[in-house]
């Protein structure tokens, strides 16, 4: 039972392929059941365990776990929704020598283990009401692989799903462990390594490793961020403060903004040639920019400049993604769901699929913000964040994120890594800020977030 940071994320089809490539599926089931049993034994603390087994291989894993827990001396009961329908599950059922109760008649137990259905479910669970009843009566509810009733790749709920305290991801994480609404029912997700050879282009976000400034560092080598202000100066001020707190060596504000800014921020008027400075490491455009002709003119000038770029907020409503095609410097787009739809239309597939397709078409890094923020690169790489906070659903937090990403982009780092680091730091700052914060409060917690990465 391992932490999930940095682990591969596989779709149902990719997981089936990885298992097939392994070859010895019986040994794989035994190892999965062993991992489940070890985790349940630790979490149950001697209490009675009820394991619910379905007809497929997820149920087979449950039978193996039941046998091993009983051998370890833990009181275990098994209830099944149907007889096993796969050879592996039948073999596992034969080796379980205890009774098997009909699921509909099962009495609750302090610890419930849901091994009804896992990866690959495509239909509602007929026994959903019984599962909800038994999980609600348990002191601790644990899901094997995925909570029964969720769709693996999209994170959709196909039938009512009870909340689980722990979900044990078998072999690899699946998109539903991270994508909502399913992720909201998984509780703490832990990974059981089955020794599979995993080739994945999607991973869970890990804490970034950030370098301390070298002894010979100066403000320009640390990274100069230029932020283009517009009609709503407060948004630019939030981004400016975040960029400074997130590690930029020099923050330049181009255009008007509120007077409530750190004295270290350099202010200049917006004018032709404002970006003609080779020392600029990244430009941020969009927070509070407005959507009038003046704003369009500023965005056009930014796109024509040769600097790495972060596009956020209003600029996303003005941007034609085709305008990024001729640029050689990297671009990072940071849309929420509404801005994403306006930019890229109605793309198909999961949230991960849509972000990956958008990044490929725009030839830019896309940070699709939300309950599970997805960072997708034009080369197909995807990282999904698990550090988001529901308290970030307040005005201005996106401006702070944009400034944080711009600061990381301006320094000597890969653009994809900069986007990931910015998202992680933003989430960690929110965790440290606690509940019911203003966006203005977030930037003050960025230095402590950075300290966790050095």
From TrEMBL:
Binding site for (6S)-NADPHX: 57-61, 118-124, 145, 235, 288, 336, 399
Catalytic reaction(s) noted: (6R)-NADHX = (6S)-NADHX; (6S)-NADPHX + ADP = AMP + phosphate + NADPH + H(+); (6S)-NADHX + ADP = AMP + phosphate + NADH + H(+); (6R)-NADPHX = (6S)-NADPHX
Manner of cofactor binding, per the entry note: Binds 1 potassium ion per subunit.
Keyword line: ATP-binding, Isomerase, Lyase, Metal-binding, Multifunctional enzyme, NAD, NADP, Nucleotide-binding, Potassium
EC number(s) per entry: 4.2.1.136, 5.1.99.6
Any Pfam family hit: YjeF_N
Domain YjeF N-terminal: from-to ranges: 11-202
Domain YjeF C-terminal: 202-453
An individual GO BP term: metabolite repair
InterPro entries referenced in this protein's UniProt entry, alphabetically: Carbohydrate_kinase_pred_CS (IPR017953), CARKD (IPR000631), Nnr (IPR030677), Ribokinase-like (IPR029056), YjeF_N_dom (IPR004443), YjeF_N_dom_sf (IPR036652)
Record's keyword annotation contains Magnesium: no
Residues binding K(+): 58, 114, 148
Residues that coordinate or bind AMP: 369-373, 398
Molecular functions per Gene Ontology: ADP-dependent NAD(P)H-hydrate dehydratase activity; ATP binding; metal ion binding; NAD(P)HX epimerase activity
Cofactor(s) recorded in Swiss-Prot or TrEMBL: K(+); Mg(2+)
HAMAP family per the UniProt record, alphabetical: NADHX_dehydratase (MF_01965), NADHX_epimerase (MF_01966)
UniProt function note: Catalyzes the epimerization of the S- and R-forms of NAD(P)HX, a damaged form of NAD(P)H that is a result of enzymatic or heat-dependent hydration. This is a prerequisite for the S-specific NAD(P)H-hydrate dehydratase to allow the repair of both epimers of NAD(P)HX. Catalyzes the dehydration of the S-form of NAD(P)HX at the expense of ADP, which is converted to AMP. Together with NAD(P)HX epimerase, which catalyzes the epimerization of the S- and R-forms, the enzyme allows the repair of both epimers of NAD(P)HX, a damaged form of NAD(P)H that is a result of enzymatic or heat-dependent hydration.
Assembly and interaction partners: Homotetramer.
Family note: Belongs to the NnrE/AIBP family.
Protein name as it appears in the record: Bifunctional NAD(P)H-hydrate repair enzyme
Organism of this sequence: Sphingomonas metalli
Gene: nnrE
């Amino acid at each position: 039972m391992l932490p999930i940071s940095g682990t591969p994320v596989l779709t149902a089809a990719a997981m089936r392929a990885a298992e097939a490539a392994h070859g010895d599926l019986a040994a794989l089931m035994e190892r999965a059941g062993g991992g489940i049993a070890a985790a349940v034994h630790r979490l149950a603390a001697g209490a009675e365990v009820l394991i619910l087994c379905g007809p497929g291989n997820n149920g087979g894993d449950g039978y193996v776990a039941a046998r091993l827990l009983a051998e370890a001396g833990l009181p275990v009961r098994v209830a099944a929704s149907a007889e096993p329908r796969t050879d592996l599950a039948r073999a596992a059922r034969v080796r379980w020598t205890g009774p098997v109760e009909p699921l509909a008649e099962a009495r609750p137990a302090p610890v419930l283990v849901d091994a009804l259905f896992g990866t690959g479910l495509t239909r509602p669970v007929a026994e959903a009401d019984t599962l909800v009843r038994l999980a609600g009566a348990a002191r601790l509810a644990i899901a094997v692989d995925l909570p029964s009733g969720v769709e693996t790749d999209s994170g959709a709920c196909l039938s009512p799903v009870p909340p689980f305290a722990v979900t044990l991801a078998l072999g690899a994480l699946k998109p539903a462990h991270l994508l909502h609404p399913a992720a909201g029912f998984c509780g703490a997700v832990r990974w059981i390594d089955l020794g599979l050879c995993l080739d994945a282009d999607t991973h869970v976000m890990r804490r970034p490793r950030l370098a301390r400034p070298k002894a010979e560092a100066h403000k320009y080598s640390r990274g100069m961020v230029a932020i283009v202000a517009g009609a709503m100066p407060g948004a630019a001020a939030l981004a400016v403060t975040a960029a400074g707190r997130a590690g930029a060596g020099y923050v330049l504000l181009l255009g008007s903004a509120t007077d409530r800014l750190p004295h270290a921020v350099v202010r200049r008027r917006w004018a032709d040639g404002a970006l003609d400075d080779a020392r600029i490491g990244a430009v941020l455009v969009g927070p509070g920019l407005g959507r009038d002709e003046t704003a369009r003119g500023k965005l056009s000038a930014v796109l024509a400049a040769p600097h790495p770029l972060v596009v956020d907020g209003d600029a996303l409503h003005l941007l034609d993604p085709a305008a990024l095609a001729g640029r050689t410097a990297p671009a990072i787009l940071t849309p929420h769901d509404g801005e994403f739809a306006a930019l890229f239309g109605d793309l198909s597939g999961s949230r991960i699929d849509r972000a990956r397709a958008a990044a490929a078409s725009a030839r830019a890094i896309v940070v699709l913000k939300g309950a599970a923020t997805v960072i997708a690169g034009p080369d197909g790489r995807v990282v999904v964040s698990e550090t988001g906070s529901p308290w970030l659903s307040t005005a201005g937090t996106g401006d702070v994120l944009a400034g944080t990403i711009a600061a990381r982009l301006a320094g000597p780092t890969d653009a994809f890594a900069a986007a990931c680091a910015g998202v992680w730091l933003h989430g960690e700052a929110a965790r440290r800020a606690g509940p019911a914060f203003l966006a203005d409060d977030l930037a003050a917690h960025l230095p402590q977030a950075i300290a966790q990465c050095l």
